[in-house]
From TrEMBL, chain A:
CDD domains: ABC_TM1139_LivF_branched. This is ABC transporter ATP-binding protein. InterPro entries: AAA+_ATPase (IPR003593), ABC_branched_ATPase_LivF/BraG (IPR030660), ABC_transporter-like_ATP-bd (IPR003439), ABC_transporter-like_CS (IPR017871), BCAA_Transport_ATP-bd_LivF (IPR052156), P-loop_NTPase (IPR027417). It comes from the Bacteria. Keywords: Amino-acid transport, ATP-binding, Nucleotide-binding, Transport. Pfam families: ABC_tran.
UniProtKB/TrEMBL annotation, chain B:
The keyword Transmembrane applies. The chain crosses the membrane at residues 25-45, 57-76, 105-123, 151-170, 228-252, 259-278, 327-345, 378-402, 414-438, 450-467. It holds the Pfam family BPD_transp_2. This is Branched-chain amino acid ABC transporter permease.
Length: 240, 488
């Protein structure tokens, strides 16, 4: 097997004295959807954010396309071909949909803009209808679509998504997950998906990691984890 | 007022809106009486060494009458009875102008109350209009409202511009009016510059006047000691101020909000104190005088020019008039201010300008999109500083004298007030606020020490009614042609 697109080895990260990650190892291969599930406070968002440089890892190593990116500033990392739709979406509320998308494309050659915009609108026709509307007045689902579309405007090699299903109705969740599946299947986009919604995430992803207390508790193919008793008991029972 | 509002909200539905408004107004007048009676009504006077108490019942009574009618007008306006409210406003204003008041201040207050009522009424109507629109909310409606607003903004903008261009040709344009207009435009230019830093990039800079000072002193030294002409010294002063911006910005722009404000405040004071104490360099408290006055491309504005120099009026075959210089200065600052304005409007649509605004909305999201926050803020800081430097040059050449006194914190506060009042980021709002703030402080010059009080009162009132500034609406930088893609 070729070298993974992104490799995390023995990653530690802390907020002041609180150690949120205590030696995490994760590999993401080109073309995969990898999901990270775990309880609230397990450190999922922290892992995703420290892949982007903040909080800075206190120990361990992150390599992207064979290049050591540990300790780079966030904006430098994002320019290497990683994009994220952060927890809570963080779209620009006073800016219009179109302006938000333009912001997503700041690091790319403007020559690609029209093409990328077209693709974004094909993925999310709703955004096309709403392109003149301010981000803050979009519905939660639309905001999530915008956050994903904005991330994709930078033509990333790796897309990081933090809880895209948060606070959305099941039907919208299915729509969004369907789009993620299409992006992966049609464009070969590598996706790292942080999710609470373990059942849907495992259905969508190829492989998965379970994070607990800042450590990887379990990992394997999605099918394996879906069939695993412990996972079922902790993350799936009573769920969906 | 808050007390009365609360009551109005919790009381069961009253018989008629008019009665309710009356009751409301009476209640507020009562509160005013309770407060003003002892505070204003009784004055201790030193009479022959012993303190006695004087009663000023006339003033209190008149004040309470103003409060009563003011509140009545507001209450009526809030209950949808706009016409009676405007009537009261007109009455108050007329009374303010015509009646013999015990003190001038009361007359001014009556006029201000009238004006406030009108503003409140209009704002209410506009809001109701917006709400009725929002009721049928589809996104095309929002876009339509946006378009109308843009049309209105543009119309008003052109109107103001036309008025400015025509002003010097008006028969009433004497040197006082022109000087005031020049002051307004100078502050407008400064405020537009600061608007880039605060309004667009969201960096609270309380020491903006430092860059104004750097520009002015650079200009003074360059033109006086090194023989630079205006057009040579102007860009150099701007660039020098911008470098100062970078120098200061680099270490401090990592700071956030309050910390940045405090550091910039300190920086402003440091510059002033250095200028005050570095006598060899800056002339200390005496400043730098006899800075060469601006000429019209080599033709000075003087009655009798030295041998070989053609003064301005001879060049055009006019009679000498001291107004010529003022008019030229006026147009010059108008052009400079417009340059800043057009530059800001343009740069908002470029990636860097959009990044400033995005940074103000969400810095974390910006980082995640690959934007380097420090550099982006630095450009905003430097460009804002550069415009302050230009304004400083203009100031130096028009006054032909600079001293640290012109660059106190009060100036920064004034410019900041204009930006905040204008609505942080709105170009037209800032222009209106500059006219309002400088115009009002001029208009109330007769009130001497009350002037700042009235100014403060005005600020408070505006912040109550328009907490986000006069024009707080942010226009999108990209216009959408329904379904037809992007127009940059
Ligand atoms: N900015 C911060 N400062 C201090 N502690 C933090 C900060 N962000 C997160 N933490 C702590 O780090 C731990 C991991 O948080 P994290 O946000 O990574 O959890 P999570 O797995 O994403 O949870 P959730 O599913 O609720 O989003 C938690 O104990 C949290 O309190
Ligand atoms: Mg999280």
């Amino acid at each position: 097997m070729s070298a993974p697109l992104l490799k995390i080895e023995g990653l530690h990260a802390a907020y002041g004295a609180i150690e949120a990650l205590r030696g995490v190892d994760v590999e993401i291969n080109e073309g995969e959807i990898v999901t990270l599930i775990g309880a609230n406070g397990a450190g999922k968002s922290t892992l995703l954010m420290s892949m982007c440089g903040k909080p800075r890892p206190t120990a361990g190593r992150i390599t992207f396309e064979g290049r050591d990116i540990t300790g780079l500033a966030t904006h430098q990392i994002m320019r290497l071909g990683i994009a994220q739709s952060p927890e809570g979406r963080r779209i620009f509320p006073r800016m219009t949909v179109m302006e938000n998308l333009k912001m997503g494309a700041v690091v790319t050659d403007p020559a690609f803009f029209d093409e990328d915009l077209d693709r974004a609108f094909r993925m999310f026709p709703r955004l096309k209808e709403r392109q003149g509307q301010r981000g803050g007045t979009l519905s939660g689902g639309e905001q999530q679509m915008l956050a994903i579309a904005r991330a994709l405007m930078s033509r990333p090699r790796l897309l990081l998504l933090d809880e895209p299903s948060l606070g959305l109705a099941p039907i919208i969740v299915r729509q969004i997950f369907q789009v993620i599946r299409e992006i992966n299947a049609e464009q070969g986009m590598t996706v790292f998906l942080v999710e609470q919604n373990a059942f849907h995430a495992l259905k969508l992803a190829h492989r998965a990691y379970v994070l607990a207390g800042g450590r990887v508790q379990m990992s394997g193919t999605s099918a394996e984890l879906l069939g695993n008793e412990e996972v079922r008991a902790a993350y799936l029972e009573g769920g969906h | 007022m808050a007390v009365a509002d609360l009551n109005a909200a919790t009381r069961p539905a009253p018989a008629t809106p008019f009665q309710a408004a009356l009751k409301d107004a009476a209640l507020v007048a009562l509160v005013a009486m309770a407060l003003a009676g002892p505070i204003v009504g009784l004055q201790t006077v030193d009479r022959g060494g012993s303190l006695t108490v004087d009663a000023r019942f006339a003033e209190v009574a008149v004040g309470i009458v103003i409060v009563f009618f003011g509140r009545l007008g507001l209450a009526l306006s809030d209950r949808g009875l706009r016409l009676p409210s405007y009537g009261i406003a007109a009455g108050l204003a007329a009374a303010g102008f015509l009646l013999p008041w015990p003190t001038d201040l009361l007359g001014v207050l009556a006029i201000a109350a009238g004006a406030a009522l009108v503003i409140r009424g209009l704002a209410g109507q506009y809001g109701a209009h917006r709400q009725s629109k929002a009721a049928l909310a589809t996104e095309t409606d929002e876009e339509k409202a946006d378009r109308l607003r843009r049309l209105f903004t543009r119309g008003l903008g052109f109107l103001l511009l036309a008025a400015a261009v025509l002003l010097p040709m008006m028969p009433f344009a004497n040197s006082y009016i022109l000087d005031t207009a020049i002051r307004v435009l100078t502050y407008m230019m400064l405020a537009w510059g600061l608007n880039i830093v605060i309004g667009l990039a969201g960096l609270l800079d309380l020491g903006y006047v430092a860059f104004y000072a750097v520009g002015a002193y650079t200009y003074a030294l360059l033109s006086k000691d090194h023989g630079f002409g205006f057009w040579g010294a102007l860009p150099l002063s701007g660039l020098f101020a911008a470098s100062f911006g970078v120098l200061l910005g680099f270490p401090v722009l990592r700071l956030r909000g309050d910390y940045l404000a405090i550091v910039t405040l300190g920086f402003g004071e440091i510059i002033r104190i250095v200028l005050l104490n570095w006598t060899n360099f800056s002339g200390g408290p005496n400043g730098i005088g006899s800075i060469p006055r601006l000429t019209f491309f080599g033709h000075p504005f003087v009655r009798n020019a030295p041998e070989g120099v053609v003064p301005f009026h001879q060049l055009f075959g006019l009679d000498f008039s001291p107004l010529h210089r003022s008019i030229f200065f006026f147009y010059l600052i108008l052009v400079l201010a417009l340059v800043v304005n057009v530059f800001t409007i343009r740069i908002r649509r470029l990636p860097v300008g959009r990044a400033w605004e995005a940074l103000r909305e969400d810095e974390i999201a910006c980082r995640a999109l690959g934007i380097n926050p420090t550099n982006t803020k630095l450009t905003a800081f430097a460009i804002g500083a550069m415009f302050a430097g230009f304004a400083g040059s203009f100031f130096a050449t028009t006054q032909s004298f600079v001293s640290p006194e012109s660059f106190t914190f009060l100036e920064s506060a004034m410019i900041l007030a204009i930006v905040v009042l204008g609505g942080m980021g709105s170009q037209l709002g800032v222009a209106l606020a500059a006219i309002l703030v400088i115009g009002l402080t001029e208009a109330f010059r007769g009130l001497a020490e009350y002037r700042m009080l009235v100014f403060g009162l005005g600020m408070v009132l505006i912040m109550i009614w328009r907490p986000r500034g006069l024009l707080s609406h942010r226009d999108p930088t990209i216009l959408i042609n329904s379904g037809k893609g992007v127009r940059p």
